[in-house]
Amino acid sequence: MVAVVKTEEGQVLGAIISSELKEGGHNFFGDANTCLFSLEPQLNVLRTSGLGRNFVYLNTKNKFHPIGLGFGGQVGAFRFWIGDEMKDCYITKSDCTYSPGRMLQTMNEPIPQGPDPLDSLSGLTTTVEGATATSSSSKPRADASVSPPSVESSLTANFLVPLNVKELEIWGTGDASTLEQQQQLLKQQEQLRQERRQVDKGRLLDSNFDREFLLGGTFSRAKGPEAPAV
Predict the structure, then answer these.
(1) CA 23 to CA 63: how far, in whole Å?
(2) Which of 3, 165, 12, 181 is closest to 90 using CA atoms?
(3) In what order do the strands lie in the sheet with 28-29?
(4) Pfam families attached here (predicted)?
């Protein structure tokens, strides 16, 4: 089975699911043959790493857990997440189940690093040498209170990338035997539906209560024309 997502920006990514897509509640399922991929703007395949077993997550009923389709990571922090009604979708850089790597080119920007100590020392030396020129200029106190974004916030923004999902398609895959099994399953389901629709009239006659109160008029007439109708 293949799940393919297209974003508003034209990016195409998805997952190949080697097992049956089934309701798992808050539990993961699947096997190591599952993988993640991206097609646009570049081709990239992320196979399982062998470290984790959180392959596929599907929940459509349990409102106490995230509702949607997820891959890898853990509940609430998936590697690839498609939320309910295709909202709040995202991808992350790494997890234990799938190989590390960035699925989309928008994640290929270098991770921001902290300031180099040598650069700070060089800047301090320059400031001391030009103390006279620096002291003659004044800056508002408000500028001194403005600090650049922290490295932690930059790393968080780089680790998780939101997705604006436009389309979602799920394709069934398999060989001739898989198709035959599917047809047999559909046939069994149809037989069960037909059995539920049919009423076994013979079972209604098992007791005198059913005969008198459910079909009393019918059996009264069967006794003869003088029998009173119920």
Answers:
(1) 13
(2) 165
(3) 28-29, 56-59, 68-71, 80-83, 89-92, 160-163
(4) TLD
Angle at 100 between CA 98 and CA 102, to 5 degrees: 110
- Taken in order 172, 72, 112, 149, the sign of the CA dihedral is positive
pLDDT per residue as tens digits for the range 152-198: 444 455 788 999 999 999 998 877 887 888 889 899 999 998 888 87
Is-cis flag, bond preceding 110, omega within 30? no
Taking the C-alpha atoms of residue 116 and residue 128, their distance in angstroms, rounded to an integer, is: 19
- Asked if pLDDT for residue 79 goes beyond 70, the answer is yes
What ranges in 99-207 are assigned the alpha helix state H?
117-129, 131-136, 141-144, 151-159, 176-197
> Residue 204 — very low, low, confident or very high, per pLDDT cuts 50/70/90?
low
Tokens of 140: 């508002």
3-class SS of residue 37 = strand
What b/e sequence results for 54-79 when a residue is b if at least 16 CB atoms lie within 10 Å of its CB, and e otherwise? bbbbbbeeeeeebebbbbbbeeeebb
Name the strand (E) or helix (H) holding 223.
helix 216-223
Q: How many CB atoms sit inside 10 A of residue 7's CB?
A: 18
Q: How far apart are CA 75 and CA 28, in angstroms?
A: 9
What are the distances in angstroms from CA 15 to CA 5, 21, 42?
Answer: 9, 12, 15
From CA 202, how far away is CA 215, in angstroms rounded?
12
Q: Which residue from 46, 44, 38, 45 is spatially nearest to 9, judged by alpha carbons?
A: 38
